[in-house]
Amino acid sequence: MLVPYEDVLVAAEVYGIHVLHRAGAKAHDWFAGVRPGRGTAKLMLLPIKAHPELLDDVSPALRKRRSGDALFTLKPGDEGLLPELGRLIANAFGAYLGHAASLHNPGRRAGER
To answer: How far, in Å, are 19, 21, 40 from residue 11 at the CA level?
Structure first.
């Protein structure tokens, strides 16, 4: 789900978590990270910490998968949540870069065609 953002952001590793961040960002200024687990995948969306309003329209089913301020733990069978999670990621990307992100072109900045 984060692959579309790899064209704009830089991949790195922080504490064993694969993360994406802006070029030149400090170690803890990152957008999103993924950590696989035993039968789960953990997705961290750091912009949620600074912008909790990103969660205003999140469904109860996706909220149930939230296991921390900015952490979502997904399990097999959660595939139905992926479209909603994709929208949340796109909105978090816009917040991270400081503008509205396009849901269809995550690498495109607001106003670009």
So the answer is: 6, 7, 21
Nearest residue to 65 (alpha-carbon basis) of 84, 52, 50 = 84
> Tokens in use for 68?
């921390």
Q: pLDDT at residue 104 above 80?
A: no
Residue-wise pLDDT for 18-28, tens only, equals: 999 999 888 77
pLDDT digits (tens, 9 = 90+) for 42-80: 999 999 999 999 999 999 999 999 988 899 999 999 999
Q: Which residue has the tokens 């039968």?
A: 39
- Alpha-carbon distance of 22 to 80, in angstroms, equals 30
CB 58 within 8 A of CB 45: no
DSSP letter, residue 5: G
Which CATH architecture group holds 3-97?
A: Alpha-Beta Complex (3.90)
pTM, to two decimals: 0.82
**Residue 49 identity:** K
